[in-house]
Amino acid sequence: WIAHKLVQESLEDGYLVGSRGSVGSSLVATMVGITEVNPLPPHYVCPKCRHSDFEVDVSKYGCGVDLPDEACPNCGTMYNKEGFDIPFEVFLGFNGEKVPDIDLNFSGEYQATAHRYTEELLGKGNVFRAGTIATIAEKTAFGFVKKYLEEHNKTARNAEIKRLVKGCTGIKRTTGQHPGGVMIVPKNHDIHEFTPIQYPADDKTSGVITTHFDYNAISSRLVKLDVLGHDDPTVIRMLEDITGVNARDVPIGESNTMKIFSSTESLGISPEDINSSVGTFGIPEFGTRFVRQMLTETRPTTFSELVRISGLSHGTDVWLNNAQDLIKNGIAQLSEVISTRDDIMLYLMYKGVDPIVSFKIMEDVRKGKGVTPEYEQKMKEQGVPQWFIDSCKKIKYMFPKAHAVAYVIMAFRIAYFKVYYPEAFYATYFTARADDFDADTILNGRHAIMQKIKELELKGNTLSVKEKNLLSIYEVALEMYVRGIKLLPPDLYKSDSVRFIVTQDGIRIPFNALQGVGASAANSIVEARETGRFISIEDFRERTKVSKTVIEILKKHGCFQDIPETSQISFF
């Protein structure tokens, strides 16, 4: 109910909320609006008279989105198509023995508001940020020991050094806070019955009080809500603001949007133009090289296949050296391989394995524990193929299906805007990545961008995180130009401080997208221009208080073309 209240508040304030983890397995969570994921089997339901039809061939249609369009036989209204066929046991266990864990993705710019609302709902003194304890790693401990010996002019044998390192490894170094976790204390209890409390890293100016004990140590004693910040709801809000389209009205599974996951046809460009046979640049979960390669190999055409690909791409040892080889060698199809943890339990139950045993095998596999000889025997007795058993043994970690569905729904909405509102899509994509944006290169057009892409591709696996981010931005920028959309240089009076703006002539870049111009300098420029036009660069410097470096960057981009260096005033 607390999660329901938080989500409703966010929706009323205009921000969608994405669900994480297995909460989408719960029909109750769906009905109270915590998650958009409907865990029932694929079915039709009439939005007008509420007539429903569950007579659907589940082996043919993996989820409701993929069902053919049908009209309600009672009133003739077109049916809504619902259901993703997710077992509730993943969320609560077979006998309700699992502690329910509700993780929610709020917009990054709304997260602080959601935290404040949690405190407002439950009262001060009942809500605390989940604390973390950072410990000393083995390498760091080795450095400490070495330095100690050097400073004290001591020598030690390897065995003694190892003993000292072992003694230091794992002890507390500092404390911090979980990125979104909040611990809830019942009203008739005091927090000190469970844990001491403190400021993170003992910083009294932080304004945040956290649990002193690591949240993992007390998570089974107190309810923990994960009120996390995420880019997708922020991007969707920006897309809604620019286009006026409500993201919840986007038809999930729409055919032109679906095509970008297997070709570039819907974008009106050829694969050679962007050096990619799929059109998913900039789409969350589907834009990375790794996932684009998966799309190229599998060519998905249904929403349920996209969910499977999301599961395969997020697990550890689920796709590489596992499902990929099974599909390549024709042993199993995309619809048959293990993509999410739910697949294991459902398949084993379908094969006749005891439901409790099926559940336990799923839990062991998703935690990377493999399959015990006893369970392997039970699987073989029910005719489970050897490739399936071998696949289970290789897996180290797996997504729950509900998590994959929630992510793909968000990704599909953003993909819809990419197909039908391209300017809005590119403007929001670059706004969310303004810190890494390379204006110098991208403003120079296609050839300059292609040159940079080639340079980075030559580095192969040695790319830094920043370079990987840059490569993604270059790829999206190249695609934008190929689709005939221009990027406009900064303008003292037309550019926003931090947002890329859609105009009739193209997309205007903001001040903070220029390398070397921070958000505070960008804001001061926008504030200063509201009091009137700048009569000289000297006047600009006085009113904005920005550094000489910022002025030089703006000069380089032609922002002062018609403005003199100093004010020329004559008295008569």
List keywords for this structure.
25 helices; 13 strands; 5-stranded mixed β-sheet; alpha+beta
Could you characterize what this model shows?
- The protein is globular, with a radius of gyration of 28 Å.
- With 572 residues, it is of the alpha+beta class.
- Strand 12 (501-502) and strand 13 (507-508) form a beta hairpin.
- Helix content is 44%, strand content 10%.
- Helix 12 (303-314) packs across helix 18 (401-420), helix 14 packs antiparallel against helix 15 and helix 19 runs antiparallel to helix 22 (465-482).
Task: Explain the layout of strands and helices.
Blueprint: H1 2-12, E1 18-20, H2 27-31, E2 43-45, E3 52-53, E4 80-82, H3 89-92, E5 103-107, H4 111-122, E6 127-135, H5 138-151, H6 158-168, E7 172-184, E8 197-198, E9 210-211, H7 215-218, E10 223-230, H8 231-243, H9 255-259, H10 271-274, H11 289-298, H12 303-314, H13 319-328, H14 341-350, H15 355-366, H16 373-381, H17 386-394, H18 401-420, H19 422-432, H20 439-442, H21 446-458, H22 465-482, E11 487-488, E12 501-502, E13 507-508, H23 519-529, H24 537-544, H25 548-556
Parallel strand pairs: 5-10, 11-13
Antiparallel strand pairs: 1-5, 2-3, 2-4, 6-7, 7-10, 8-9, 12-13
Helix pairs in contact: 1-4, 5-6, 8-18, 8-19, 12-18, 14-15, 18-19, 19-22, 21-22
